[in-house]
Amino acid sequence: MTVMPTLFISHGGPNIVLADTPARHYLEQIPSLLPRPRAIVINSAHFETDGVAVVTDPAPGMIYDFGGFAPELYQMTYPAPGDPALAKQVLGLLDQAGLAPHRISQRGYDHGTWTPLKLAYPDADIPVVQISIDPTRDAAWHLSIGRALAPLREEGVLVIGSGHITHNLRAYFSVLRQGANPDPALAGKVKAFTDWFADKLAAGDTEALLDWKRRAPYPAENHPTDEHLMPIFFAYGAAGEKGRGTRTHDSVDDGFFANDSYLFQ
């Protein structure tokens, strides 16, 4: 069986499924980048727990974890099945790695999961297992979660980290809701940050990446909080110790909100 790559995707807001944007069209083209997976394990920035949790739900419902968006978004569904057997395997791998996982028997798909998957795999016929982040833990811890799950790639499982390469919502909502002009300096800070990640991921420079808060340019301006960046370390870790990242998409919204995505192999 072909060894699957892993993915990091910047999932955008829930309205990405309606928007005519490069980021949306990129997500629609994901199946052209890799073999069809037999199942998906996805780590969403919107699934936060104390420690790491795995969802064993055989039929997850929907979580509309947003407000003020178009009414039709609240009617959308993504009926992909869960995979309790794969979830049990994930729990076992995490336990073997000493990560003390816990299980959640029922949990729906948050928008970090269902919106990108609805675009990439609209038939909803690939089983999905959800795995959480812990916003109190660092990059090294999230990398270790992914590293523990690297063997799944040899079984046709696609491992996805769903977050955002930049996530300064204060600046974004100032533009979106108040009509304010973005700080022109912010675009340069975003480019410096995203280019630094592209360089380090391409080189497989794990030491620098795990020290991103000190070494990357303008970390606070791009991530006032860390949770949306943690899935990139998960996806990078799942590619194995020799994994390298190729930036497969790099559009920018409103001049500063970056949508970079990566393929790791």
Descriptive account of the structure:
This protein is an alpha/beta fold. It has ten helices and ten strands. It has helices spanning 22-28, 84-96, 111-120, 139-148, 169-178, 184-203, 206-210, 212-215, 219-222, 230-238, and strands at residues 6-10, 39-48, 53-55, 102-104, 128-133, 157-163, 245-249, 252-253, 257-258, 261-264. The strands form three sheets. Strands 5-2-6-1-10-7 form a six-stranded mixed β-sheet, sandwiched between helices. A two-stranded parallel sheet has the order 3-4. A two-stranded antiparallel sheet has the order 8-9. A hairpin with a 3-residue loop joins strand 8 (252-253) and strand 9 (257-258). The mean pLDDT is 94.
Global mean pLDDT: 94
Oligomer: single chain
Shape: globular
Order of helices and strands: EHEEHEHEHEHHHHHHEEEE
Name of the top-level CATH class: Alpha Beta
Question: How many separate helices?
Answer: 10
